[in-house]
Amino acid sequence: MTTNAESLARWATDLAPTPDDLALAQRSLLDTAAVALAAREHPVATIASGLPDAARWATLGHVLDFDDLHIDSTTHISVVVAPAVLATGGDARAYLAGAGVMARLGTALGWPHYSAGWHATCTAGAPAAAVAAGTAMGLPADQLTTAMALAVPGAGGVQNAFGTHGKSLQVGFAAQAGVRAAQLARAGATADSGALDAWLGLVGGRIGTVDLSGPAVPGGLAIKVFPCCYAMQRPIAAVREIRDQLDAGVERVVVRTPEASILPLIHDRPRTGLEGKFSLPYAIATAVLDTYPDFAAFTDTAVGRADARGLLDRVEVELHDDGGDDLLTGEVDIDVECAGGSKRHTRLARPPGSPSRPPSAAEFDGKLAACGPDVAGRLAGATWKSVASLLRTTFPRVPEEHS
After folding, report:
1. How much of the chain exceeds pLDDT 70, in percent?
2. Which among 112, 197, 232, 330 has the fewest CB atoms less than 10 Å away?
């Protein structure tokens, strides 16, 4: 019987990208590179400086939580796959091969896997990065199958890391695990092609044939408008729709939302900027207090503001189960009571940047500009080769010193 690894490897080998697929790949390249460049001054840039290229670039591309997301699989596809491709001299087709495998594996892992506490970006990411790197290296289908099996030991990551450096670092580990697996497969390593299916069952995935239908990346990718967890995009956008109507200060906020939609938001009382990126109460606070919740809104100083701390205590959350199983299930419904006695109501199903509300060219250019005044210029006419060179120059590897 054909294993899922064999089927996915054959799919990746036979992939013939459409113009729409290639457009998605180019947007993903720009988005991932821009967000990585925005992290130039982040402490993680020094912490991760000794890691190999794929691990270093994936870590930097994820630490600001501004990178794209595949809704159906709840995975950050590009930040794992693009660095694996860039580190191995690949192109758009290699990216799409890895991205397509990651979307399908992540969907097969399903919501039960994510809701159990796994970080699906890492678990689905390592085998997908193996396909991306292997495709960039020109591996045939049988060696891609082996590479996926060899990546299984590196397919791990947990949500307890959210709000710490561990979240972005474990994404980097997944990208590098894929590159390492592809290199070993190319060198002649052997592995059981059924390892991927065995692993799927062990981590709670749906055991069966992975769906190979549809475009390279089924469902497309969501582009973040705010630099924080995707589960915060919708409540922030909803409050921003009524922000100009709030007067005399906010006395009480009631947020009603499906339980599944805020699963990653594990910090009700954030203490740091990183924790603030995973906090529903802080999503409300920054949406009320900040004209635009940008990088400055997610610093330790911003999260520690007295007015922000005060708002956290006035946010009430009412969760319900609508039967949905992704971060955009149902809709968010918010009531705001102001000190002057006025009341405002807002509700939202799909935030800007979601696949059904893709960013316009101007909005996407605005995101690039938000990543730094020189980022758009440095990425003008970007190719996979030029971006790899840019990242190597901007983030040179610093060998570890051994005493």
Report:
1. 99
2. 112
pLDDT for the residue 402: 47
Please list the residues that pair with 342 across neighbouring strands.
none
Residues 335 and 216 occupy one common structural domain: no
pLDDT grade for 258, boundaries at 50, 70 and 90: very high
pLDDT at 403 over 70: no
Domain that holds residue 372: 4-225+357-394
3-state secondary structure of 278: coil
Q: Which amino acid appears at position 254 of this protein?
A: V
Measured distance CA(324)–CA(175) in Å, rounded: 30
Does any domain span residue 146?
Answer: yes
Buried b (16+ CB within 10 A) or exposed e, 337-346: bbeeeeebeb
- Residue 102 maps to which CATH number? 1.10.4100.10
Q: Is 289 helix (H, G, I), strand (E, B) or coil?
A: helix
Q: Give tens-digit pLDDT for 162-202.
A: 999 999 999 999 999 999 999 999 999 999 999 999 999 99
Do 202 and 217 fall into the same domain? yes
* DSSP 8-state class, residue 218: T
Show the tokens assigned to 191.
């592995």
The structure's pTM equals 0.95
Q: Is the dihedral of CA 191, 82, 296, 244 positive or negative?
A: negative
Please state, rounded to an integer, the average pLDDT across all residues of the chain: 96
Residues 327, 236 contacting (CB under 8 angstroms) = no
Same domain, 257 and 278: yes
The verdict on residue 38 lying in a domain is yes
Task: Give residue-wise pLDDT tens across range 130-157.
Answer: 999 999 999 999 999 999 999 999 999 9
Query: Do the Cβ atoms of 330 and 234 come closer than 8 Å?
Result: no
Between 92-115 and 19-38, two packed helices, what is the crossing angle to 10 degrees?
Answer: 70
* Domains: count for the chain: 2
Is 403 a domain residue?
A: no
**290 domain residue, yes or no:** yes
Question: Do the Cβ atoms of 338 and 236 come closer than 8 Å?
Answer: no
Residue 207 binned pLDDT confidence (cut-offs 50, 70, 90): confident
Question: Residue 316 maps to which CATH number?
Answer: 3.30.1330.120
CB proximity list for 349: less than 8 A, separation 6 or greater? 234, 328, 330, 331
294 and 234 within one domain: yes
